Amino acid sequence: MERSLPKIVFATNNAHKLEEARALAGDSFEILSLAEIGCHDDIPETADTLEGNALIKARWVKDRYGYDCFADDTGLMVDALDGAPGVYSARYAGPECDAVGNMRLLLRNLEGVADRHARFVTVIALILGERTEIFTGSVEGDIATEPHGTNGFGYDPVFIARESGLPFAEMSAEAKNAISHRGRAMRGLIEFLTR
Ligand code: IMP
To answer: Which of 83, 101, 124, 184 is the most buried (most CB within 10 A)?
Structure first.
């Protein structure tokens, strides 16, 4: 008889993130998406910190659907912009804006700025039974003066990782994942869950 694996929800419907998490988890537990548990809610992300938003999402699922759950939130922190766009990275150029609009605004705000140091930070909140755990991952880089490359998503064409010297959008998914904010936070989570 087949033994069923423990189930845990990843509070996302992003196919790419799910695939990445499932590959890391191997056959130690089953990762379900929001759609797979019948959750089509527009979960509010109203906190002003990454940790706050990750916790809102994970608690939402645990409280309403009863599943153990983890949720992530990521921001790009630019030193010369006092940490902006930060927790507002997805909607930096306004609620209707896309990645191209966000990058354009970022480059405009950094025109003529010499210090282009930035970091991506991912925070993952896990709710497992009565326990709440937080995992963080970050990667240091610099904002380019113009976009380069076509891989990835979001700010990848303008983020030059210090560890590789390359824009994320010119790195393979595997190479990016090995040093990225989300890769690091995810590996912390998976290590905790599988130990
Ligand atoms: P989320 O919390 O993963 O949805 O990330 C929030 C926003 O940060 C996204 O909409 C992207 O603009 C940006 N972002 C997150 N991760 C990455 C990445 O790996 N590369 C580029 N941009 C990212």
So the answer is: 124
